[in-house]
Amino acid sequence: MSRSATHAGSWYTEDGEQLNAELTGWLEAVKPLDESFPIKGTKAIIAPHAGYSYSGGAAAWAYKTIDTSNVKRVFILGPSHHFYLNGCAISSCEEYDTPVGALPLDLETIKVLKATGKFESLSLKADEAEHSIEMHLPYVRKIFEGLDIKVVPIVVGAVSKEVEAFFGELLAPFLAREDTFCVVSSDFCHWGSRFSYTYYYPAPPPSEEPGVRLSRTTLPSPTYRIFESISRLDHEAMELLTLPPSTATDAHTHFGDYLVRTNNTICGRHPIGVLFGALSLLEKESGIQPTVKWVRYEQSSACHTIKDSSVSYASAWVRF
Question: Rounded to two decimals, what is the model's pTM?
Answer without folding.
Answer: 0.97
